[in-house]
Amino acid sequence: LFIENVPYFFNSPIGGATKAILHRLGYYTKTCVLNGKDFGSRCSRPRGFLVASVWPNYHFPKETGLATGSL
Asked: pTM above 0.85?
């Protein structure tokens, strides 16, 4: 399961309840804030991401190091 929202959503009461429900259903959750500009996008807006998985070892991608507009 993949959820994208504003960065502070996952620290809000609703975000916390979402994570708690997913844990009760047997999912492992990981959250991260990523910015498109760190991956070569022209968009420089930070976004919060949550991944819920039955496998505990999910890792978010590393920054590409591409400068915005260099593609």
From this structure: no
- For residue 48, the cross-strand partners are 5, 33
Give CA–CA dist 18/33, Å, rounded. Answer: 17
Distance, in Å, from the CA atom of 19 to the CA atom of 40, rounded to the nearest integer, reads 30
User: How many other β-carbons are positioned within 10 Å of the β-carbon of residue 24?
Assistant: 8
Q: Count other Cβ atoms within 10 Å, centred on residue 51.
A: 16
Are the C-beta atoms of 61 and 18 separated by less than 8 Å? no
The pLDDT of residue 51: 93
Give which of 18, 49, 44, 15 is closest to 33, Cα–Cα. 49
